Fold this sequence. Notes:
By secondary structure, the chain is of the alpha/beta class. It has a single domain (22-242), classed as Ribonuclease H-like superfamily/Ribonuclease H (Nucleotidyltransferase, domain 5, 2-Layer Sandwich), CATH 3.30.420. It contains eight helices and seven strands. The chain has helices at residues 28-34, 93-106, 117-123, 125-138, 172-195, 201-204, 210-219, 230-242, and strands at 22-24, 53-59, 68-75, 107-115, 146-150, 153-155, 161-164. β2 and β3 (68-75) form a beta hairpin. α3 packs across α4 (125-138). It starts with 21 loop residues before the first strand and ends with a helix.
Amino acid sequence: MARCVLPPPYSVPTASPHIPPACVASDSAAAAEDWRHLRADSPSPQPGQVELLAGVDEAGRGSLVGDVVAAAVIFDPSRQAVSGLRDSKKLSPARRALLAQEIKQYARAWAVGRASAEEIDTINILQASLLAMQRAVTALAAPPEYVLVDGNRLPCWSWPSAAIIGGDDKVAVIAAASILAKVQRDQEMLDLDREYPGYGLAQHKGYPTRAHLAALKQLGVSPIHRRSYAPVQNSLCEQGKDA
């Protein structure tokens, strides 16, 4: 079967803007060991007297729709610890919402960054996620002394940092960022569901569920869908055949 080639305006851009590339973090195992006592209900103790420690995570990489959203959090070690922090995907929506309020209340600084669907289609989802993280850290009211990132790659930025695989379930300040990013993005999906009814965004948050793929087939691709993702490209090809 011949591969469908999308004509303009649906072709995916190939030119990439000049943004810092991903850096492979070689010290992730050591970082996880050094910061292991930051998990669970730790208020934010700092190895090596690091006071302004930022945690960073993103939400929405696998979604077919909208922005990828990142959050950055710096806890205030002199204030009350936030209890019950863990990977946001393991928490109920109600629990995430309550924790997000506490995180914002007790954090020394927090911020959200994003990369748009257009940026994702232009530079790919990995680079867009790293760009969103960079924007979140840059937006912090207090510049961090050290940054811990969930995953195995870092943006090539100027802050001393380490990537920790599974950090959103190991390190409290990363878990906090995970919760803020997911709560923010989930709310945006609820808003988009009202703007683009029929796709079920309020239920699946843009992820490629069976219901979402069926809606794509029935309704076609919306302006907020990521055109570089295979299910969306397939739907565009089908639309082209039916035109």
